[in-house]
Every structure is written in C-alpha cells, then in structure tokens.
Design a protein that fits this description.
- The chain is an alpha+beta fold.
- It folds into 2 domains: 3-134, 60s Ribosomal Protein L30, Chain: A, CATH 3.30.1330.10; 149-306, PurM-like C-terminal domain (Phosphoribosyl-aminoimidazole Synthetase, Chain A, domain 2).
- Helix content is 35%, strand content 23%.
- The chain contains 10 helices and 10 strands.
- The chain has helices at residues 3-11, 56-74, 92-108, 158-166, 174-185, 191-196, 211-222, 235-244, 252-261, 277-286; strands spanning 35-45, 77-87, 112-120, 124-134, 149-153, 203-207, 225-229, 267-272, 291-298, 302-306.
- A 6-stranded mixed beta sheet has the order 6-8-5-9-7-10, sandwiched between helices.
- The chain is globular, with a radius of gyration of 20 Å.
- It starts with a helix and ends in a 19-residue tail after the last strand.
- Bound molecules: adenosine-5'-diphosphate and magnesium ion (MG).
- Adenosine-5'-diphosphate is lined by residues 7, 11, 22-25, 83, 85, 113, 115-118.
- It is an enzyme of class 2 (transferase).
- Mg(2+) 2 binds at residues 42, 70.
- Mg(2+) 4 binds at residues 25, 40, 70.
- Pathway: Cofactor biosynthesis; thiamine diphosphate biosynthesis; thiamine diphosphate from thiamine phosphate: step 1/1.
C-alpha cells in the first residue's frame, strides 16, 4: 500500500462544512459570518505520550480528543482538523483502527478531516484543529479577577492513577483500573461545557499537565493569585480510597498528587464571579458535565493550598514539564 492509497483508504472522507477537503494542495474553509477561527495544534509522540502497544483505536480517539479539549477551553465550536502522521510502516490493521477511533470522535463533534501529511518515520501524530467562536467571545486565560470562584469539570487524577498502575508503581483492582484507564486512554473533551461557559466564565483552560501548574497559567496571564481547597478536588479519587477502605494502598499525599498535579485529565479549569454560580451550574447541567467549585481568585500573587477547615496545606506539586531539569 503506497502513501496515496493509504490516504485515500483511511483518511479521505467527504466534507460538508469545508468547501474543499483532502486531495488538493490546500483545503478551503470559511468560518461563519461574525465568527473568529480558533486554531490549536497538539502532537503525540510514541514513548512520550503513549505506550508503543496502545490500542490504535484509542490512540485515534485520544489524538483528536486532546485537540478538541483546547477548542473546549476557548469556548469554540469544532469545525475541521488536519492530521500530520509519521508511521513506521503502512500497517493496514493499525491504520484502520486508528482512523476509526479518530473518525468516531470527529463525528460526535461534527468535525471534519480536511487535510494533512503522511510520511514514514517514528510513530508521531500531530493534529491541528480549527473551530469557530463569535468574534470577541473566546474564553481566555487572562480574564480572572480577584473574588472569582475557581471551578473544575469532571474528575481530576484518574489518568495519573491509571498511568502509575500501568507503569507498575502500584496495583489497582481490575474494575478500578478499567475505569481509570478509560480516562487515560479515551479522555472526553468538554466541548459542550466550554461553549456553554461563553459569557459566564471570566477565564478558562484545559488541564493537560496537572491542575496546579495549569491554573498557574491563568494566574500569570490574569495577574492574580488563588486559594485552592485541596479537599474539594478529589471526588473520584476519594471514592477509590473509600472503596479500598482499610486496605488503602494509597497515602493522602499521593492522592493529592494525582488530583492536583496528575496530568492528562483534559478537564476544564475556569473562573467565574460568585454571582454566576447558578449560571455555571446550569452550564454544567446543560452539557451533562459535573462541575465543582475548588477555590477562589485572590488579588495578591501566589497559590495557597488549604484543607476543608481552611488550614494551610504545605506541599509542592510539580506539574508535567517536558523540559524540566
Ligand atoms: P502536498 O505534497 O501537496 O503537500 P500530499 O501529497 O502530502 O500533498 O497530500 C495529498 C493530499 O492528501 C493533500 O490534500 C493532503 O492534505 C492530504 N493528506 C496527506 N496526508 C493526510 C493525512 N494523514 N490525513 C488527511 N489528509 C492527508
Ligand atoms: Mg505533503
């Protein structure tokens, strides 16, 4: 199977939204009237972002999911994406499963593959996603104000729990591993929530490298600080710990590490004024996405961690950084 057969068979699909899709030198696409294009790019590298033996169907899903998550964080509606693929060999079964996983998620979000590039080389997947957002209404990192509540969607920490189990760092009961593993390998981009938060949230981003490190980007961009209630950030992890009961194999610091700095969560972290609490809950309900209030924005710089009683929690949690020393 040559390069062009491979593209035709696995990656060329009819387009509706775009004026022109795969097959020409450029694809053609126009945002709706009064809309801005939202553009984001994420690369997944074997050995860095996924295990060499990962199920290609799940990998197809995740490669697009992490990109859609960026659109979600901006409050944008997905339109289209391009796929740059470096493949060690033209493995038909692998390409079929990968493209199926990718197109299944694309269909859920009405997001079309409109072009890309295919080359032989180490397995590497780079997707650029395009979305649209009413001009001036994109959610940014820079809008948080002192007094705003800080919220997160879904459950943080599951992906980290699964990753550590897969790396053999701790055992997990099979049922628990299955749940956590799905969150690691097939994350759900919070696209509907992001759109519902336009005009409600003052700032937003998606949590990909760990909550505290990512939240720091909002604080830096907005010139503010924050106080986080560490007891509020652990709904699912707490359920895990409860389930294990007295046989608990995790200590509290490890559970906090998962929720506060786990990485690969693809949940949204966002801020909104206290008057908007009902509106935030409505946005969560309308998008069938749980939302939890975990703290508040403060005027002075710095990130304080407290427990449920408001007592300081002394801890340093490093978020993921590809080039950390
Ligand atoms: P060019 O050499 O003009 O850049 P290519 O020969 O690389 O074009 O690709 C031919 C067509 O196939 C282009 O429309 C390109 O966008 C598309 N394409 C290539 N690889 C992929 C891929 N992995 N997924 C989707 N479209 C692809
Ligand atoms: Mg090319």
């Amino acid at each position: 199977m040559g390069e062009f057969d491979l593209i035709r068979r696995f990656f060329q699909r009819p387009v509706r939204r775009a004026a022109l899709g795969v097959g020409d030198d450029c694809a053609l696409l126009a945002p709706g009237p009064g809309m801005q294009l939202a553009v984001s790019c994420d690369m997944l590298v074997q050995g860095r972002h996924f295990f060499p033996d990962v199920d290609p169907h799940l990998l197809g899903h995740k490669s697009l999911a992490v990109n859609l998550s960026d659109l979600a964080a901006s409050g944008a509606t997905p339109l289209a994406f391009t796929l740059a693929l470096s493949l060690p060999l033209a493995d038909e079964a692998w390409c079929a499963a990968f493209s199926e996983g990718m197109f299944a998620l694309a269909a859920q979000h009405d997001c079309e593959l409109i072009g890309g590039d295919t080359t032989a080389g180490p397995l590497n997947i780079c997707i650029t996603v395009l979305g649209e957002v009413p001009a001036g209404q994109a959610l940014l990192r820079s809008g948080a104000r002192a007094g705003d509540d800080i919220w997160v969607s879904g459950n943080l920490g599951d992906a980290r729990l699964a990753l550590d189990a897969l790396l053999g760092r701790h055992p997990l009961p099979p049922a628990l591993l299955t749940t956590a593993r799905t969150r690691l390998e097939a994350p759900t981009p919070r696209v509907a929530l992001g759109q519902a938060l336009r005009g409600v949230a003052t700032s937003a981003l998606d949590v990909s490298d760990g909550l505290l490190g990512d939240l720091q980007h909002i604080l830096d961009a907005s010139g503010v600080g924050a106080c986080i209630d560490t007891s509020l950030t652990t709904p699912l992890i707490a359920a895990y710990a409860d389930m294990l009961g007295s046989e608990a194999i995790f200590d509290r610091d490890y559970l906090r590490q998962c929720t506060l700095a786990g990485g690969d969560d693809y949940e949204l972290c966002f801020t909104a004024p206290p008057q908007a609490r009902d509106a935030v809950l409505q946005a969560g309900a309308a998008s069938a996405t749980p939302v939890t209030r975990i703290g508040c924005i403060e005027a002075h710089a710095g990130l304080r961690l407290v427990d449920a009683a408001g007592e300081p929690v002394a801890a340093h949690f490093a978020s993921f950084d590809h080039f950390a020393d």
